[in-house]
Amino acid sequence: MKKLLCIFALMAMAACGKDDPEPTPSGSIDVTGVSVAPTEVSLVAGETAQLTATVAPGNADDKSVRWSVAPEGIVTVSSTGSVTAVATGQATITVTTTDGNKTATATVTVIDTELHSDLKDGQVLLYKKSTRPKEVPLVFMGDGFTADHMAPDGKYMRVMSARIDAVFKVEPFKTYEDYFTVYIVGVVSNKEGVSIGGELTVDTALGVSLGFVQDNEAILRYANKTPVTGDSGAIIVISNTMNDQQMMCWGLPGDYWKGGGLAVIGMNIDYNENLSARNDYNATLMHEIGHAFGWLGDEYVNDPGRGPTADENNTLNFMHESGRYHNISMTDDPAEVPWAHLIGHPNYSYVGMYEGAEYLGKGRWRSEQNSIMRDQWTSYYFNAISRELIVKKIMKIAGEEYSFEKFVEKDRP
Ligand SMILES: [Zn+2]
After folding, report:
1. Which of 169, 293, 318, 394 is deepest in the core (most CB within 10 A)?
2. How far apart are the CA of 120 and the centre of ligand 1, in A?
3. pTM
4. The pLDDT value given to residue 13
């Protein structure tokens, strides 16, 4: 009993710090409030984090606090605010002042690296972790998958892991794989499949309708459950399409979430899960990731006989100025194309000027005959300028300086 009292006395002293514990003659200084930092923490099971409570005013007589957690079983919290992640889920840590019972709370989310039971709605799984100081995050989630699909060996995880693995089978993602952290977010829809034609006819969580429609608010709400704090690479939504619906896919180059774009890919794993990674649908996946991550433009032609209007030139100028579509040129002047530095380089003798890109047969040039941004059906290959643009983006998000020499050294066509 005596020993216990000693410990309490020491703790109280530690909590009081250097402040004068003596009451002032005019009366005691009461606690008026408390705050906690950080207020949101994400941890992998086993990791720890330190929460700090600040009691106001700074000269309050009794600055001691106690920590509690609810619900139990997800994290533990020590008497000094050290939090240890135990199991997947979300818990609220409350700090309460001894004097006045003032409170502040922090939310701790524990993510797992392995799925032991059904993936829950909103649960985040860490699929792959970057080995670099600053991660390049990709966030995968699905639409039109129901609770029946969420088992560890169920359709949701099969689709996600097949598509994630496919990303790292194509260059430059393959060579730079160790830069990427990949999260899977569980998204449980009420109905299976997705809507078509732009209308919402199927009750799904992310409101994807094949026809370039998605519920942005819902997608961002799920993305924000991940612990991504820096820039994002891209969000990739895989919609549970049926039969031939998988042809409807789109990618948004630009700042959709934390500086990264959005790709929406429709795929039915039952339709093609026995095919190798190098199949049409994975090439489509990579085409849309080319838009969303690399901010690349389409290199294919819909209108062979037509050149650009003034408006279309203005639009491309704007895209170039905002860091997009540098795989497409408005000129065939080898000194002016965005890939001028590759022309004549001994490693890139295959790079030149090919007319026809961005849907137009005339007045638009691309750098090589083929690339995944031109032909998603037979090509599983990003052309050299696209690889360079993707590597530049990886370096930017990872906070590393880009060097053309280093790119060339590591580049694998
Ligand atoms: Zn496209």
Report:
1. 293
2. 32
3. 0.81
4. 39
